[in-house]
Amino acid sequence: MADPQPIIIVKKKAPHAGHHGGAWKVAYADFVTAMMALFIVLWLLNASKQVQEAVGGYFKDPRGTAKTVGSNKNGTDEFVALKKEDMSKLKDDLLRSIRHLDPQDKLKNQIEITVTPEGLRIELMESAKGTFFELGSAKPTPALRDLLQALSQELGQLPNNISIEGHTDSMMYSAARTYDNWDLSTDRANEARRLMQAEGIRPEQISQVRGFADRRLRLPLHPEDPSNRRISLIVQYMVQNDAEVPLPANIATQNAPSPNPADASARASNAPDQNAPDQNAPAQNAPAPVPPQNSSAPVQNPAAKSN
Question: Does residue 168 contact residue 213 with C-beta atoms inside 8 Å?
């Protein structure tokens, strides 16, 4: 029997494509770089003006020899005190952020920002229907949440302390005296603090949370006006090394405490009476003093003097 023929298996391999040399990696790296630049630009568009200037100053001078700095701290890690003109600049930045949030100026008459001796005061005033809080409640409205979010993003980048005040009008809160205007003003101020801390304000930035009820009316001649119901945010002037920055002399005089009535009455009681006779003056009918024995002046008889 003849031997069987061997089985021959032929395997054909498909030809490989030409070597590309990794050019796709370069294209991918360019794509990632472009995406990163896009996200940086989008972030800068929503950042504050201070951050934009700091980032721009770095790209203009990476070695840091220019005058533009990127923080509010000096070399000893201490914040630099803001001057009054800095507060005016901060006011313009806040107004710009508010206009971006409220392009139709619906809240124009209910937000007031002024530079005062104690700092930058931001007044959020209520309307008759209740704009920032529900009527008779400390529950915030969406308008207040959006506004405090915009303000907190700006103020949270500052080193300054912030004081929060709550105010009400003179209308009685309710017949029951278990909860009154004092409680309402304090609760609203504290609720504003919670919202601001959740949106960027550092806890150590809050220096005071106070409720004044109707003791500091915005319109004293109209105690029941809705604008008396308000939240006040005060961006205080900077404090260095736990010591308050001294105020100018004219401002310090205006803020000097009024004299105590009790002290004034005590001083008045100890003051000499202008109508009372002078005890040191000699009486009209009193005899003339006798001169010393060694004196050569003659002794005059007081009875001989004519009146």
Answer: yes
CATH classification at residue 154: 3.30.1330.60
List CB contacts of 216: < 8 A, sequence separation 6 or more.
Answer: 165, 167
Parallel/antiparallel/unpaired status of strands 230-236 and 119-125: antiparallel
Q: Specify burial of residue 111 (Cβ count, 10 A radius: 0-12, 13-18, 19+).
A: buried
Full pLDDT tens readout for the chain, 307 residues = 566 778 888 877 766 665 666 788 889 999 999 999 999 888 888 887 777 777 777 777 766 555 444 444 444 344 445 566 678 888 888 888 888 888 888 888 899 999 888 889 999 999 888 889 998 889 999 999 999 998 998 898 888 899 999 999 998 876 667 888 999 999 999 999 999 999 889 999 999 999 999 999 999 999 999 999 999 999 988 755 444 444 434 333 434 444 444 444 444 444 444 444 444 444 444 444 444 444 444 444 434 333 3
Q: State the residue range of the domain holding 97.
A: 84-242
d(CA 40, CA 55): 10
Whether 84 and 91 have beta carbons less than 8 Å apart is answered as no
If one counts the domains in the chain, the total is 1
Q: Which of 160, 290, 168 is nearest to 223 (CA)?
A: 168
302 domain-assigned: no
CA distance 213 to 228: 10
pTM for this predicted structure = 0.53
Question: Token digits for 64?
Answer: 């840091």
Element (H, E) at 35: helix 23-46
